[in-house]
Write a structure and sequence with these properties.
The complex is a heterodimer of chains A (209) and B (465). The radius of gyration of chain A is 21 Å and the shape is globular. Chain A contains five helices and twelve strands. In chain A, strands 1-12-7-4-2-3 form a six-stranded parallel beta sheet, sandwiched between helices. Chain A has a four-stranded mixed beta sheet with strand order 8-5-6-9, sandwiched between helices. Chain A has 209 residues and is α/β, with parallel strands linked by helices. Chain A starts with a helix and ends with a strand. Chain A has a single domain (34-186, 199-208), classed as 3-Layer(aba) Sandwich (Rossmann fold). By secondary structure, chain B is an alpha/beta fold. Chain B folds into three domains: 1-36 and 308-390, no CATH class; 40-288, Rossmann fold (3-Layer(aba) Sandwich), CATH 3.40.50.10420; 405-464, no CATH class. In chain B, the strands form three sheets. Chain B has a six-stranded parallel beta sheet, with helices on both faces. In chain B, a hairpin with a 2-residue loop joins strand 11 and strand 12. The termini of chain B are far apart. Classes of the chains: A alpha/beta (209), B alpha/beta (465). At the A-B interface, helix 1, helix 4, helix 5, strand 9 and strand 10 of A face helix 2, helix 3, helix 4, helix 8 and helix 10 of B.
């Protein structure tokens, strides 16, 4: 008998002998229906050591991105395909990188600029689903600086609403999803938190109202 | 280990440095967890939802696994089934060999620790690089993990610096600042991430409905291992399946707060099979039984299969805080290890672990999926005694106690006898490990107060009788 059939047989035998009791009506963490709290998002994203800058209009966003590039000394900035062209900063070399961009090139740029699919206020999380303006997963992973523009309109309050929001893309096309809450971190040495290990060590979030 | 938990615990208790590290770690995590849980309006409702979700997953485990296999296959992945660790290791070794690679990058995974995958890979000439900082520390020191979440918690910064200086090139001038140590690990692993063709991971969950697999982490090494290699191999216990994609929300609400005491962990990766042009070209999911179906057959003990590996129960356990993870001699230490390890080994290993608890119940109160760990501990003590004949002295003593407690006269006579008999054994008001006979084992791990000169019953008779 194959391992598959044997494992499934054992599971069925265990469940036949003693069925597992489950409540009749499945409970769910209810999605928070209240209006999304943009200020809370800014506060919570900041708690996890992302730098958060509110901005108004495309010009405001562009200016905030330029300021971030100056802060981090960015000369070459990777940009995801499909990103709003009005946000692109002047005075830096732009590398518009598609899915076939070699990892060496991603490793060589000073940072990457994307938007995101959704954001969670209560946890300060941004969610990428590789849609337009977000690029493939490697794009936001290999560079050491990630600048992410979060339009206020895509912020939701809780995790349940966010999972609702991204569920369709996963069900229909199996889109890869990345949830990001602050820059990479570790507490593995004596439980002292260190920001920045393998993922981008700096996360700049620009909230576009 | 021949002496089991009691012997190992006695050894570990002599290590004052270990105890200081553990107290600092568990105290810190407990405080962080408490503060982020206080923020949630309906934490108890969330725990109920978590428990219910995992019950639902287990109630139709066979159907969910079949659906998961279909979903992953439809999404371009390949599903493999392994009855035990040996079979799972052989599958992974064959898959790595088929790529022609001799190296793989690995993200921290309890399941692959459980089956000792790294040893099997090494025996096949394949080097597995652990990429989680703590796992790297453990691997470089040829050491064992001592905590589910922070496996190198028994090591201090000076020890870690020495390990890095001995094993990582170009680290002669390394300081013992955690930031400098993390930077050294980053430089060492960077090229491996960018060039190694095979990645190996565990999974926090996989969704039957969509075939989506999830890895929850902090450092970004999980993203690296599941995104950059050409081939990704994931080993997952069969109990980790979730029925629906919506269930991911409940997991992500419960796990980070319970585990690291954060509102959300820095990175969560969710992938569904293979995505053309993005990430690995090949994806293999190895579904591991290794004692899980046997555990499911025990209607009480199987609640342990709800575990989401958050380690909250370790951080509140007074026994764990004093003896540390190594005393459990098990991939899963602490209260959850004490109920999971003996069951996954079908009571052939870890049979002393159900006694490694004071049954205080703190573990149950923090468990995000409401596993009644004390109840299962007691249940497993019974099973070990019945099925493995273990501690005979305790069984005889309990049978004798049952007879004594059943009648008032016998009880009063026993109280008087204890008072008289204990006098030559007592010192400073306590009886210390000097009892002869079957009680020796009981007192090996407990000090006993000397019985009072007069019992309550005698006092009552004298005053009011």
């Amino acid at each position: 008998m194959s391992a598959r059939d044997e494992i499934l047989d054992r599971v069925r035998a265990a469940l036949d002998q003693h069925p597992v009791a489950v409540d009749e009506a499945p409970q769910r963490a209810a999605a928070d229906e209240a209006a999304p709290d943009v200020d809370l998002f800014c506060e919570r994203a900041g708690d996890y050591r992302a730098t958060v800058t509110p901005a108004t209009g495309d010009d405001g966003v562009c200016a905030a991105i330029e300021a971030a590039c100056v802060r981090h000394g960015v000369a070459r900035l990777a940009v995801a395909e499909g990103l709003n062209a009005a946000w692109q900063p002047r005075d830096v070399t732009i590398e518009e990188l598609g899915a076939d961009a070699p990892l060496d090139l991603l490793d060589a740029v000073d940072g990457v600029l994307t938007t995101c699919a959704c954001a969670i206020a209560q946890t300060g999380t941004v969610i990428l689903d590789c849609g337009p303006g977000q690029g493939v997963r490697a794009l936001t992973l290999v560079p050491d600086l990630h600048i992410c523009v979060v339009p206020a309109a895509i912020i939701v309050n809780g995790v349940a609403a966010a999972v609702d929001r991204i569920g369709a893309g996963v069900r229909e096309t199996g889109r890869p999803i990345t949830l990001i809450s602050g820059p990479s971190a570790t507490s593995d040495i004596e439980l002292d938190r260190v920001e920045g290990v393998h993922g981008p060590r700096r996360l700049e979030i620009i909230v576009a109202r | 280990m021949s002496g089991g938990f009691p012997a190992a615990a006695r050894e570990e208790l002599r290590n004052a440095q270990l105890r200081r590290n553990l107290r600092k770690a568990t105290t810190t995590i407990r405080a962080k967890r408490a503060s982020v849980i206080a923020e949630v309006d309906n934490w108890e409702a969330l725990r109920d939802a978590g428990a219910e979700l995992k019950q639902r997953a287990l109630a139709d485990l066979d159907k969910h696994l079949e659906q998961l296999e279909r979903s992953v296959t439809t999404a371009g992945g390949t599903v493999h089934w392994a009855r035990d660790g040996t079979e799972a290791n052989a599958i992974v070794v064959d898959l790595v060999r088929a790529t022609g690679a001799t190296e793989a990058i690995k993200v921290k995974s309890m399941a692959t620790d459980e089956i000792a995958l790294n040893d099997a890979l090494a025996a096949a000439g394949i080097t597995a690089h652990e990429t989680d900082l703590a796992e790297l520390i453990v691997q470089l020191g040829d050491d064992r993990q001592s905590h589910i979440l922070v496996p190198a918690i028994h090591r201090n910064r000076a020890e870690i610096r020495e390990l890095f200086r001995a094993h990582l090139p170009g680290t002669e001038d390394l300081t013992d600042e955690p930031a400098a140590l993390a930077e050294a690990a980053r430089r060492y692993l960077r090229q491996k991430f960018l060039t190694t063709p095979v990645g190996i991971s565990g999974a926090n969950f996989a969704v039957a409905e969509t075939g989506t697999v999830g890895v929850v982490e902090s450092e970004g090494n999980g993203r690296m291992c599941t995104t950059l290699p050409h081939t990704l191999i994931t080993v997952m216990g069969i109990e980790k399946v979730l029925p629906r994609f919506d269930d991911v929300a409940t997991m992500l609400a419960l796990l980070p707060r319970s585990s690291t005491g954060e509102r959300m962990n820095p990175y969560t990766s969710l992938w569904t099979g293979v995505t053309p042009g993005d990430g690995p070209r090949e994806f293999h999911l190895v579904l591991l039984d290794a004692g899980r179906s046997a555990t499911l057959a025990d209607p009480v003990g199987r609640d342990a299969l709800r575990c989401i590996r958050c380690s909250a129960c370790l951080n509140v356990c007074p026994v764990y805080e004093r003896v540390g993870g190594h005393a459990y001699d098990s991939t899963y230490p602490g209260p959850i290890g004490a109920i999971l390890t003996p069951q996954l080994h079908e009571l052939n290993e870890g049979t002393t672990l159900p006694w490694a608890s004071s049954l205080c119940g703190a573990c149950y109160e923090v468990c995000p999926v409401k596993i009644d760990i004390p109840q299962i501990l007691v249940h497993l003590r019974g099973r070990v005694v019945r099925e493995r004949g273990g501690p005979a002295g305790e069984r005889l003593a309990m049978e004798a106690l049952a007879r004594v407690f059943a009648h008032r006269r016998r009880y009063e006579a026993a109280q008087r006898a204890a008072r008289v008999a204990s006098l030559p054994l007592s010192r400073d008001g306590r009886i210390e490990r000097r009892l002869p006979g079957p009680m020796r084992g009981w007192l090996a791990v407990r000090d006993l107060p000397v019985p009072p000169r007069e019992s309550f019953r005698d006092w009552w008779v004298r005053e009011r009788g």
